[in-house]
Amino acid sequence: MRPPVSQAAAPGKVILFGEHAVVFGEPAIAVAIDLETKVDLIPDETLTQHQVNGEPLDTYKHLFIEKAINLLWDNAGNTTRLNVQTNSRLPSAAGLGSSAALSTSTCAALLHQTEQFSETRLARAAYETEWIGQGEQGSPIDTSASTHGQAIFVDKEEHDNHLWTLRRSDSTWHVHHQPLERMSFVIAHSGEKGKTGELVSKVQMYHDRTDVAQKIIEDIGDTTREGQEALRRGNLARVGELMDEAHELLGMLGVSTSRLDELCRTAREHAHGAKLTGAGGGGCIIALTDEPDACREALQDERAETWIVRSARKGARAWGHRGTRTVNERH
To answer: pTM here?
Structure first.
């Protein structure tokens, strides 16, 4: 008998507002983008250990895949080894949610394989995988955006359009669907690689030791709330202005770089606004623009690798011998 195959895909994301501040209970808005990670998963009784892309599963190389398999397969008592194949269009360490997309798509394939696929289960499993893989820190914003697609609003309070609630230690995140018209972004890679865990720890230390950092975090939260209202009104010019403000505040937290600042200034000549996305320390900037070609050309003149992307309509989905499942199929 042909082994049952489960396949899954999950999008990356950009954070429009709220990175770092979301860890401290402030709101954030993330937008899924049309760059994806895909995973094929095949149980194989001839294998003596799990394999990824033709190699034995290795903690260093395949950290998030290993955590997902442990959580949803090994710990459930399954003894058949898995053959996992991955294909991603997302650059790593770029603030585009590459690890979250990998965690989410792997969990989606595993849940499909065990006939447990649903939006809420996937959101919880993907966050658990990412949280463990990142040293038991971080918020669920990346994995929630990858799970749901479109856009999400995360806050410590529950509002309309609520999707699910996730808790970790003393932190609670209520995740909501954020209505959003399709938007175009130009993404430019700084050529620098940021280390999420180190940057999250750095901001945590700064926040705990100084009143200044606490005020910056609060200001980022206020900017996010204003951004949500501007999105509701469809006022992209105001969204862009607030993106610029958000970038300046993140710079005050010490997570921007001179290269990221330079790319933002260049992008703004052809964009409503621009800011770093993700943890910072390198990685990418995003520019919200109605002139993507001109914006991209200007950034390429700065020797930046660039992408033109749009907000993604679809979140994670899985398919295979049991048919296609999407995150719209909720309990």
So the answer is: 0.89
